[in-house]
Amino acid sequence: MKFEGTENYVATEDLRVAVNASITLQRPLLIKGEPGTGKTVLAEEVAKALNAELITWNIKSTTKAHQGLYEYDAVTRLRDSQLGDERVKDIRNYISKGKLWESFERDARPVLLIDEIDKADIEFPNDLLQELDRMEFYVYETNETIKARQRPIVIITSNNEKELPDAFLRRCFFHYIKFPDEDTMRAIIDVHFPGLKGKLVQDALNIFYEIREVPGLKKKPSTSELIDWLKLLLSEDISLEALREKDPSKLIPPLHGALLKNEQDVHLFERLAFLARRERN
Amino acid sequence: MFVHFFHELKKANVPVSLREYLMLLEAMDSDVIDRKVEDFYYLSRAALVKDERNLDKFDQVFGHVFKGLDLMNEGQTAEIPEEWLRKLTEKFLTEEEKAQIEALGGWEKIMETLKKRLEEQKERHEGGNKWIGTGGTSPFGAYGYNPEGVRIGQKEGRHGKAVKVWDKREYKNLDDSVELGTRNIKVALRRLRKFAREGAPTELDLDDTIRSTAHHGYLDIKMVPERRNKINLLVFFDIGGSMDSHIKLCEELFSAARTEFKNMEYFYFHNCLYEGVWKDNKRRHNEKMSTWDVLHKFPADYKVVFVGDASMSPYEITYAGGSVEHWNEEPGGLWMERVTQIYESCVWLNPIAEKHWEYTPSLQILKQIMGERMYPLTLEGLDKAMRELSR
C-alpha cells in the first residue's frame, strides 16, 4: 500500500513520504495548511488511490468526542418504555454508531477523515487519544469493547484555529502543506485543465502571484480559488488580450470575484493597481 | 542511531519526545522511505515536528547535524546590534533584494550593504533625540525579516551549489519565538474563547428528565437553559501616536473580542487614561465621556483590559497638566489607580516586546500601577492575561 499521488492530485515528495509513513506505521496523519491548499481533498484522493472506502467525520464547534464512537438515545427509550414497546428490553436498539465505530467495523481497511478537528472544543482531541491509539473503545451501556478489525488510515485536518494538545500530537505524523510554488502550481493546473494554452496559464499565474503578493490582503487567494478562477476564465472564453489588458480603466483582472473574496480586498487592490499604473506613466 | 540529532533538536527547543523518536526509528525499520537523505529529511520532519512554527528550527538543526554547518554563528553579528540589523533588513531590503543577495552575494556583501545603510541611518538620526521607540518605526516592530535568514546567502555563496531543501528554510516566517505573525495572532485570540467558554451549553437535562419520568410515570422532558458567558468586559484602547504601528494587531484583537464577548464595552484614550474617554475617534473632541461616568456606570465585576504601548513621557502620567493634547486637572496615574481600585480584575496588554520594556520609564510606572499585571501581546502573554482575568 503506497500512495504516489493520483491523476487528480499533485502530491509533493514530502507529502508522499508523510502519507506513506502514516499508512505503514498505522498512525494518524495530521494535515495543516492555508485554507484551500487541498487538505480535505487529500483524504479523498488517498482513499481513491488505495481503493479504500472513505468515511468522513466533519467536526463542528458542538461536536463531542463520544459522538464519533456512539450515542445512547435515552429519551427514545424512555418514550418506548411508556408505550410498552418490546424493543426497550435491549439497550442495543438505542445505541447509534458513530463514524469511528463504523470505520472500526469495516473488513477492508478504510480511510477515516476527521475534518477540521480544531473546530471542536479544546478537550476534543484529548478525548480521542485512547481510541485513536489503540483503535478500541468501551461501550458502557452494553459492557463490550469494540476493537478495530482493520486499523483505519486516519487523516486529520486542522485549520489552526486552536492549538492541539501535545499528547495528541505525539501520536500523529504531521505535515504542513505549504503554499505551492510556481512549478507545483503549474502541475496542479495541468491536472485540472489538461491541454490548457501555455500562455494563458503563464499570464494567469503571473496575475495570481501578483495578487498574492499585495501587502495587507485580508484573505490571500489560494489554490482552490485559482482553479475556480481559471474555470471561469475558460467558460467565459476570456482571451489572452483581456488578461494582458493595460487599459487604466480596467485595472483589476477580469472576473476577480473568484480570487478576491472580500470587499475591502478588492478596494485595496484597485487602489494599489491605480497607483502602480500612475507611477508607470 | 540518531541520538545526537534528537538531542540537538531538544537543545534547539523543538518539543520532541521519546515516543516520536521511537516512531521515527520504527518507520526507518519498516522501510517507508528509500535510502535517500531527502526522504529521511521528510520522514523525520513528519515524525518529529508537530507544529509549523517549529519547522524552521528543525531545518536549521537538520542542516547543522547532517552537514556539520555552523548553526547560528553569533560572532558575526556582534559588531552591530541585532535590532539595527533586523530593522534595516526590514526597512531597506525588499523581497527581491533579499532573493538577490541569497542568489548572488555572500555574507560580506550583505554586511557591506548593511553597514552602508547603517551609516545612512546614523546620519539621519543624529538630529533626533531617541531612535528607539519613536512613533511608527519601532525597531520592536512585529514584521522583521529574521537576520539569521539573511545568513543563508553565505552558505549558498560559499559553496556555489544548489541549496538543500532544509537549507532553504522555507518556514522562516512561521517561527514565532520573537513575535506574533498575522496567522498566529488569530490562534492566540482564540484563547479568549477558551476562557469565555466556561460551562459548555447544555440543552437537555438528561438526569432530571429520567428522574422526573420515573417520578411521574410518564415521559417528562426537562430542559435547562443554555449557559451563557457571563463575563463582562471593559476595554480601553490607546489610539494614535506611537500606537499607529500596532493598529493591525489591535484591530484583530478588537474584532475577536467583539465576537467573543456579548457584554463588551470599549473606549479609546490617548497615551494615558485621563478624565475623558471617547467611543468614536472622528468626534473625540465633541463626544467625550467623563471617565467618572464610565467608572460609575459599569459595576465592579467587569473585567478591565487596557491595550496600549504605555510609551510616553513620564510626566504624562505623574503630573497634572502633563497630557500632550489637553490640560488635565489630575495626573493620569491617579486615574489609573482609581480604575485598579474599583475593578479587581484588570490587565494591560502591551504590543511592545517584553524584553524592551525596561528601557521605557513610563511603561515601568504603569506596570507598577497595574500591580505588575502587564502582559505582552503575544501568544503567551495573552494566555497569561486571560488566566489572570479569569481568576
* Helix percentage range of chain B: 40-55%
Integer tally of domains of chain A: 2
Low-confidence stretches of chain B: 69-80, 122-162, 175-186, 194-198
Round the Cα radius of gyration of chain B to an integer and report it: 27 Å
* Assembly of the depicted chains: heterodimer
The ordered H/E elements of chain B are HHHHHHHHHHHHEHEEEHEHHEHEH
Give the uncertain stretches of chain A in residue-range form. none
Principal-axes geometry of chain A comes out as: elongated
Secondary-structure element series of chain A: HEHEHEHEHEHHEEEHEHHHHH
Which fold name fills CATH's third level, the topology of the largest domain in chain A?
Answer: Rossmann fold
Q: What CATH architecture of the largest domain in chain A would you give? A: 3-Layer(aba) Sandwich
Find the CATH superfamily of the largest domain in chain A.
P-loop containing nucleotide triphosphate hydrolases
The portion of residues assigned to helices of chain A is 40-55%
First and last CA, distance of chain B: 47 Å
Compute the number of structural domains of chain B.
3
Count up the helices of chain B.
18
> Number of DSSP helices of chain A?
13
Please summarize the sheet with the most strands of chain B. Answer: 5 strands, parallel
Keywords:
heterodimer, A: 281 residues, alpha/beta, Rossmann fold, five-stranded parallel sheet, two-stranded antiparallel sheet, 13 helices, B: 391 residues, two-stranded antiparallel ribbon, AAA+_ATPase (chain A), AAA family ATPase (chain A), ATP hydrolysis activity (chain A), ATPase_AAA_core (chain A), ATP binding (chain A)
